[in-house]
Amino acid sequence: MKKITLLLLLPFLGFSQSKVSNTVSVSNSNVTILLNNTTQTATLTLIGPSDRWLAAQFGSFSGGMEADSDVVYYNGTVLVDAKHNGIGIAPSADAQNNWTVSSNTVTSGVRTIVATRLFDSPDATDYKFDYNDTTIGIALAQGNSASFSLAYHGATNRIVNTAVPFTNLGVADFSLNAAQIYPNPTTGDFAVQSKTTLTQVNIYTQTGAFVKTITVDETDSTAVTVKGLSTGVYLLELVNDTDKAWKKVIVK
User: Fold this and answer.
1) 117 touches 101 (CB < 8 A)
2) Domains of the chain from N-terminus onward
3) Handedness of CA 152, 191, 100, 19 (dihedral sign)
4) pTM of the predicted model, to two decimals?
5) Residue 249: partners with Cβ closer than 8 Å, 6 or more residues away
6) Average pLDDT over residues 130-148
7) 25, 184 in Cβ contact below 8 A?
8) Burial of 149 (0-12, 13-18, 19+ CB in 10 A)
9) In Å, how far are 55, 57, 66, 88, 135 from 91, measured between CA atoms?
10) What is each CA distance from 161 to 35, 60, 103, 164, 227, in whole angstroms?
11) What average pLDDT does the segment 6-29 reach?
12) Which of 12, 26, 136, 246 is the most buried (most CB within 10 A)?
């Protein structure tokens, strides 16, 4: 049986233009980057085991741990803004951490970190996000064992993709039908991101059997734990006072 955290992200009111990267996954970890062109901010969502370090490299590079490439890693206490020094060498923390962590939660041994940074941070060594880019390089790694001390991750605990595509979330569709679910498929946590108020989520099996109703606090972003979902395909009914939409999520 799976235990899933459904993270409901209720964005600010207003007209926005945004796009999200495809999910990059390895072992029990995954990462996505969402770009908001209106606020000129990038939002990083990093998910993985709660008992070890997690790291995500991003930008333009030809390989993992490439010298001078931008990276963040979780050291058991904070999300560190850093720069790679080359393969086999520990990254150096930046003089200033330009990432703001909005949430760092743990559910059933799975940590979910959400952090935001300006496209063009005050640190000249930070990667400058460009909304016009259609792809971005992302490398992801997690500790080989339960430890927050950076060490060799092992071949099965890292992945490098130098051209991860973005999906444009659009600028005009503020209906619930435009809501995004990521990562999908998922092995655990996933997020539902809506551009408008979301008041209720009803969960059904693929055959139509009712599973659970989640009532959402309209005044705040809310993390809701959904227990007892086994591997399979589920239908999510997204509801507010004036709209309704259906989405599908696959639990592996």
Assistant:
1) no
2) 17-168 (2.60.40.1190), 176-251 (2.60.40)
3) positive
4) 0.66
5) 181, 184, 185, 186, 190, 233, 234, 236
6) 96
7) no
8) exposed
9) 10, 11, 10, 9, 24
10) 18, 10, 26, 6, 33
11) 70
12) 136
